[in-house]
Amino acid sequence: MTKLAAIDCGTNSLRLLISDVDPVGRRREITREMRIVRVGQGVDATHEINPEAIERAREVLTDYVARMRFEGVERVRMVATSAVRDAKNREDFFAMTEELLGQVEPGARAEVISGEEEAQLSFDGAVQFLKPERGPFCVIDLGGGSTEFVVGNTDGEIFGSHSTQMGCVRLSERIMRADPPTDAETEIARDYIRERLSEVRALVPVEKAKTFVGCAGTFTTLSALAQGLERYDPAAIHGSELNFDALRVITRQLRREDSATRAHNPVMHQGRADVIGAGVVIVEEVMAMIEEIAEPRSFVISEMDILDGIIGDLRARS
């Protein structure tokens, strides 16, 4: 068995997955962890990573490195997505990651990946648990700075993908600044989202999809809320299915609540309460798009995502 680690640095969170992988590719998950560090704080406006955000990331990555060394990880890959991709001072961030990740694998450092590779890795991770006959699949990875759409099958055939410049942190900082967002802010955000979704419709054959898969924190939190969970339970969330009509009841309520009220719910991560209002507006507009061009009226929710895709890629390279 080989111990591999994947780290995803998104706009809002820094996440770790450590897995044991045998010679034929079978995997055993050792640990999966997520911390909110908000690396993308202010990047949309300044095009630079805030030094305080780099220090928050350093603190969390130091803990992750300690865990990887304890578990005996042999190889690690860390990817940085929307926020770091957009930052002028990203080399400061990379130098910090090289200093720490080199303790696990000499020469390892974070790397910026394109929106297209991000979409591919998210797709590869998200569809692993799904039955092929439910395809083609449209995987929607709703992040802090960007949202990826990719349509394909479990055999690796991809029909189209696109990374859009919309995410829950980006929209919160750029448009939906009030707490809770005003009606005017929400309508402006909807117009912005619809413009991004028009790009998706032009570039990705969303209408081919038989199953829509929602990944990342906005979708998984919505599942926890829909199920009335008393605590965040990945096992209950993974593979759950959310009907559009029922989902709209929850998204409408979240949009109208302030962040303090949202944070009071035990399934809501404290670092997500202030941005999920923007996230659910994206979900609402995605549902409206799907209803116009495709048959399904539900999302399958996946706890597997880009981290699982990275582990698969590491294994394929070895």
TrEMBL record:
| Ranges of residues in domain Ppx/GppA phosphatase N-terminal | 28-294
Gene Ontology MF term list: pyrophosphatase activity
* Classification via Gene3D superfamilies: 3.30.420.40, Exopolyphosphatase. Domain 2 (3.30.420.150)
Pfam families named in the record: Ppx-GppA
Give the residue spans that cross the bilayer: none
Cross-referenced InterPro entries: ATPase_NBD, GppA/Ppx_hydrolase, Ppx_GppA_N
Q: Which CDD domains match?
A: ASKHA_NBD_MtPPX2-like
Its name, as the record gives it, is Ppx/GppA phosphatase N-terminal domain-containing protein
The organism named in the record is Corynebacterium otitidis ATCC 51513
